[in-house]
Amino acid sequence: MRRVALISKPQKAELETIMPELASWLKSRGYEPVFDEQSAAYAHAGKGMHRDELAALHPELVVVLGGDGTLLSAARAFAKTATPILSVNLGSLGFLTEIPIQDLYKALEAWCVNCCEVDQRSMMHAELWREGKPFHEFEALNDVVISKGAIARMGDFTITLNGKLVATFRADGMIVSTPTGSTAYSLAANGPIVMPDVNAMIVNAICPHLLTIRPIVVQGDSEIQIKVEGIADQTYLTVDGQEAVALEVGDELHCRRSQHAVRLIQQYDTGLFDVLRTKLKWGVR
What we know:
alpha+beta
């Protein structure tokens, strides 16, 4: 049977009604809904599966009900597949989850008849090296961030681009983002807004101890290396604001464009600037 994966945000009371109705709608059209653990609880459909296990079922579509964080989690879970994702906004800001809940079935109908736009977003492949060898690897849709915990001490970092030294400096942390992630943490750290289809990555220092250090936009096929020369205790590498690994002095972060991409179903071909005007209130006095 053709499958559709359902992924949802925890602690959303409205899903108690939405999820059973959505599951019933899919079954009536010949699709078998498969659930992550949160969605299964809302649909009263047993235990459900861990999100990372859903990709092995080869669903034809992933429906995400939540905010951008839920979508980022789903994107990483399906990073190595070409499965399209239909993201429905149940959060607050929603840069990526642009389809409102009232348009859920309209968007699904459009997908069923192959009458919808699909926006392909590049991902980043990041590797954490420790003692000269790979320690962890990640796929990120938004960004990877080095940030400190409770202690106010800054870190010391050396940035290398394609094997060439860029700079060594002190900062509260570092952000490496995709064009999609340029409107996330990097934007809050005074980074540039980059159109999603640009082949680029952004390297951005968080509160650097040099006024002349500015965000750098590099080619998407570049190899970015950040070496941790000195950090406070409780400093972490986080991926899309969710996965976290404690860092040690001498660790190296290697970032490059991933060979995988995320396919996001769009209901409207509105473009990034429509989203920015709506979400950031551009032009509103």
